[in-house]
Write a structure and sequence with these properties.
Radius of gyration: 20 Å
Number of helices: 9
Low-confidence stretches: none
Structural class: mainly alpha
Order of helices and strands: EHHHHHHHHHE
Mean pLDDT: 88
Distance between the termini: 9 Å
Largest sheet: 2 strands, antiparallel
Strand content: under 5%
Strand order of the largest sheet: 1-2
Length: 290
């Protein structure tokens, strides 16, 4: 018999919120690149524009919405995945098959995307406000004010604008991050070169982040545009896809570099924080060992 530390269901949300505090400026720049139409502005030029117009704090526009999003979206997806995985895992400590892990991650991600959509919508709008002319800005004071304004002015259902794409992206993202992280970490720890330590967690999460970015980028572009659109501007998902396709196939990968540059450290920090929470504050589980 042996003892292992198991993650608590809410650790994922806390770890993701901590990572968001570090990576938020990159997320803001990614959103602004994705909502560009016509002439593209480089990430360096966008950074200069934000710093010139609003100073260093302009890079943290929408941080309250970003934190609210992680505490809803990531808590739900990590919680569902962890609880289901722990429930279905064999008592001898053998990990569940990858197909089952991917299915659980997809379901958890889909549910998390739905729960987190209102905060995600406000997050996208607050981040995009920086580059709009003053008379076109929404000027949400914080995430709660943004949720209230959307509900009152546009209707409660508007809070779930783009939900189909948010849920699809969240399902793919969670498969790419959680399932592949567990798969890669499990493989690495079977070799004599890696143990259950920070270097393994960083390596596994970096590879998982690359996989997740590639899987989700087209859906992420569509989701961002749907959320940032004004009422009536987009007639449906097909219309949005066709409109984006007219800009060329690479339009679906707009903002790929800042997306990866943002998602890679976010994924690494999330899993490093998560593993530290698990190791230091997780609950003990007794399992059979060969």
């Amino acid at each position: 018999m042996g003892e292992v530390r198991i993650s608590r269901w809410y650790f994922g949300g806390l770890a993701s919120a901590g990572a968001a505090c570090v990576t938020h400026p990159l997320d803001l720049l990614k959103v602004q690149m994705q909502t560009q139409k016509g002439n593209n502005v480089s990430i360096l030029k966008l950074t200069q524009i934000v710093l010139k117009n609003q100073g260093i704090m302009g890079l943290y526009n929408g941080i309250s919405a970003s934190l609210l999003r992680q505490l809803t979206y990531s808590t739900a997806r990590f919680g569902i995945y962890e609880v289901a995985k722990q429930t279905l895992a064999p008592k001898d400590g053998v990990p569940i098959p990858f197909y089952m892990s991917a299915l659980l991650a997809g379901l958890g991600g889909f549910a998390g995307g739905f729960v987190g959509n209102p905060a995600d919508l406000v997050n996208v709008r607050m981040q995009n406000d920086v580059k709009l002319p003053p008379d076109q800005r929404r000027n949400y004071k914080n995430a709660i004010h943004g949720l209230y304004r959307v509900a009152v002015k546009e209707g409660v259902m508007r809070l779930w604008a783009g939900a189909s794409m948010t849920c699809s992206r969240a399902a793919l993202m969670t498969i790419g991050q959680l399932s592949f992280y567990d798969l890669i970490k499990s493989f690495l720890t079977t070799t004599p070169y890696f143990g259950d330590n920070v270097s393994t967690h960083v390596t596994s999460s970096l590879l998982a982040g690359a996989i997740a970015t590639t899987m989700t980028q087209p859906v992420d572009v569509l989701k961002t545009r749907a959320m940032n659109a004004k009422p009536g501007e987009i007639k449906g998902i097909l219309s949005l896809i066709m409109g984006t396709a007219r800009e060329g196939p690479l339009a679906f990968f707009k903002g790929y570099i800042p997306a990866f540059v943002r998602l890679a450290p976010h994924t690494v920090l999330t899993f490093v924080f998560l593993e530290q929470l698990r190791i230091n504050f997780g609950f003990l589980k007794v399992q059979k060992v060969e």
